[in-house]
Amino acid sequence: MATESGRLLVCNCNQTMPLEAVAGAVAQGGTAPFIHSALCRSQLGNFRDAAAAGTPLTVCCTQEAPLFREIGQEAGLDEEALTFVNIRERAGWSGEASQAGPKIAALIAEAAVAGTPTTQVSLSSDGICLVYGKDQSALDAARQLSERLDVTLLLKESAGIVPPSVMDVPVFHGRIIRSSGYLGAFEIGVDDYAPANPASRDAFSFERPQNGAVSKCDLILDLTGETPLFTGHDKRDGYFRPDPGDPVAVQKALFELSDMVGEFAKPRYVDFKADLCAHSRSRKTGCSRCIDVCPAGAISSDGDVVAFDAHICGGCGSCNSVCPTGAAHYAFPPTSTLVERLSVLMQAYADAGGRDAALLIHDTTDGNAMIDMSARFGRGLPAHVIPFAVTQVTQIGLDFLAAAFAFGAGRVVLYAHPRKQEEIGGLAGQIGLAETVLTGLGFESGRVELLVEADPDAVETRLWSMDRPAGVAPRFFLPLGGKREIMDTALAQLRLAAPTPVDSIALPPGAPYGAVNVDTEACTLCLACVSACPASALLDNPDAPQLSFVESSCVQCGLCKNTCPESAITLEPRINFLTAAKSPVVMKEEEPFHCVRCDKPFAAKSTIDRIVKTLAEKHSMFATPEAARRLQMCEDCRVADQFEAGNPMTGGARPMVRTTADYQEGKVPDEDESIH
Fold it and tell me: DSSP secondary-structure letter at 654?
């Protein structure tokens, strides 16, 4: 069967899936697909013929993908022209397989969406490895690794360790007090540092210890079993921390470490745009959401912006989830690509007759494994539960959740393994915002669920037992612009289909969207808030004393509030659906003061009046009426008037230099006698 992207090959995997009953739902161009039963075996010739035609192929099988790639290569088919989609574990192996036609159609359509390439981060290792431990297993591991790597052993404790007859690895005693870096560039600080005594007999003895030692290495094997040296240690490339009591885990780590010499590359998970960052201005802190949620310590404060280290980043995506401006933008893939995939998926589901889908968002590791286990040993996924794979579930934010409901989803379930518990704080906050918005628009609560569970049976039970709320009539849109633009568009479309399309919804304190309120009596129009605002939400008017505000640009960073010398600004977290939120609204304006010399407006009248009242004839620089009048002049006229009154940079005549000889020879004028 031909598709928009080429030809589609469907297989019921030896008749284990009742695909004939759903063939009509996946038909394209009015033609139902021919259902193979043994495409990878007796019907392999059909694939070979299709590959030889040279047109793009979509194969509804992932298990035998290596075989199909090999045959396709032999037939001269470009590898990029071959797409695979899993309909077996995700739809066909299910207690509701006969009803899964719309879901299968959606999965096939989604597979055709082209991925977005990402840049790479380079890492280099020369094989310099530090083994850190406190018992015999650390010595054994170090000696084993020394055959492949340049190994140093650092013992936190040494009791019970027998020195080897051949000291094939350098041994030191010490306690790591600080650590930083990544694969190829680790640095540690060590106290109680001392080399082993070569005369050690039945137990290690060490020379005189010292504190404050510093060492660098490419790799670290931590066998202490104690507190990890790094936050988010499981995502720190080059740092291995197996359970020292688990021989299998230790050997696995040794096997991986032995090959970590050379050049390596990892995806640049996050693109950071400093010009969008709302972290700080003039040493006043505003937004620190990404710093607060990063489990790996890859983000830190660096003046007015944050410093992002792509070498440390483990790709959890939490920063993308909570960043309101899009400064921390997940690029593996970007949100716009995810929303495009989702749009195609939900559009195909609706076109095939599907309604009220429950979107199951999961990662490509634990999530895929959970789905496979359920399909092979349980009931599989219900027909209306559509799996949607992302790199990390924690990258999901309010923008994506709003798009899912606008596209017709009745429920969204986000699955995470318990080992990700420390990373889901930011995601939980975004789910809370989504719940607030949905209930504010009249939807019943509980439509967004975070499912943290390791047991596939428990996950399956929950998916089959949860209710099926109705979704709205789908309202599709193109994911154009940045994160904020996509979110605004999604929310606007969702509001149009909502039971109660209100104008605004109050959000909890700390939410990244909202308005600022200005106390007009206290505000002096100094415009310090305009200078501090990183999102251009607060604006001035070069032609008049005026302060304006664009609510759709505000990220509630609080820099305006912290900067205002009059404490005239308060924050109001909310979602404003009105179009007026996208346009500047005048918060305060005053009559301009005109320069008394050239008549140019240059400041607010109240401000100049206050300055004159405070300084005129009270400050040494403005002690005379003529000098005080300069307070009522613009910056150009003030300078001109000063020079006309006498060059302020010109002093009196320089005094004549007098020497001792002048006084001795009587050359000092009589008028100078007084200074003797």
Answer: P
Q: What is the pLDDT of residues 456-478, one digit of tens each?
A: 999 999 999 999 999 999 999 99
Peptide bond connecting 501 to the previous residue in cis, omega within 30 degrees of 0: no
CB 39 within 8 A of CB 62: no
Rounded to a whole number of angstroms, the distance between the first and last alpha carbons of the chain is: 114
Domain contains 108:
no
3-state secondary structure of 368: helix
Based on the fold, state whether residues 181 and 302 are members of the same structural domain: no
Model pLDDT for residues 482-531, shown as the tens digit of each residue? 899 999 999 999 999 999 999 999 999 999 999 999 999 999 898 999 99
Spatial separation of the C-alpha atoms in residues 611 and 595, rounded to whole Å: 14
What is the number of structural domains in the chain?
A: 6
pLDDT of residue 500: 96
Sorted by sequence, the CB contacts under 8 Å of residue 353 that are 6+ apart come out as 25, 101, 102
Closest-CA residue to 430 (of 289, 275, 271): 289
Do 635 and 576 lie in one domain? The reply is no
pTM recorded for the entire structure: 0.87
Please compute the mean of the pLDDT values over residues 324-329 and round it to a whole number.
91
Considering only CA atoms, give the Rg of the chain.
Answer: 35
Q: Are residues 349 and 480 in the same domain?
A: yes
Decide if 642 contacts 630 (C-beta within 8 A): yes
- Token pair of 477 as six digits: 């849109």
Q: 218 with 311: CB under 8 angstroms?
A: no
Task: Please determine, for residue 675, whether its predicted confidence score (pLDDT) is greater than 90.
Answer: no
% of the chain exceeding 70 in pLDDT = 96
- Token pair, residue 541, equals 């008017």
Least Cα distance to 471 among 346, 319, 314 occurs for: 346
Strands (E), 268-338: 270-272, 280-281, 284-285, 299-302, 305-308, 328-330
Nearest to 464 by CA among 382, 387, 369: 382
401 and 495 part of one domain: yes
Helices and strands of the chain, counted as H and E runs? 19, 32
Better-scored residue on pLDDT, 657 or 504: 504
Q: How far apart are CA 63 and CA 40, in angstroms?
A: 10
The conformation of residue 551, written as its DSSP 8-state character, comes to G
- CA distance to 159, 322, 439, per residue, from 506 (Å): 62, 18, 11
Measure Cα distances from 442 to 435, 458, 466, 576 in Å.
Answer: 11, 31, 20, 16
CA 551 to chain centre: 23
pLDDT at 654: 64
Q: Tell me the three state secondary structure of residue 110.
A: helix
DSSP alpha helices (H): ranges in 242-365? Answer: 247-257, 289-293, 318-322, 335-351
527 Cβ contact list (under 8 Å, min separation 6): 540, 547
Task: Report whether 399 contacts 486 (CB < 8 A).
Answer: yes
Q: What is the model's pLDDT at position 24? A: 74
Phi, psi of 263 (to 5 degrees): -100, 135
Please check whether residues 355 and 495 belong to one and the same domain: yes
Q: Are residues 494 and 395 in the same domain?
A: yes
568-611 per-position pLDDT tens digit = 999 999 999 999 999 999 999 999 999 999 999 888 888 888 89
232 and 143 share one domain: yes
Domain containing 211 equals 122-264
Distance, CA of 19 to CA of 354 (rounded, Å): 16
Q: Is 360 helix (H, G, I), strand (E, B) or coil?
A: strand
Position 610 scores a pLDDT of 86
Note whether 353 and 474 are same-domain residues: yes
Q: β-strands 57-59, 284-285: how paired?
A: unpaired
Most distant CA atoms of the chain, gap in Å: 127
Residue type at position 332: F
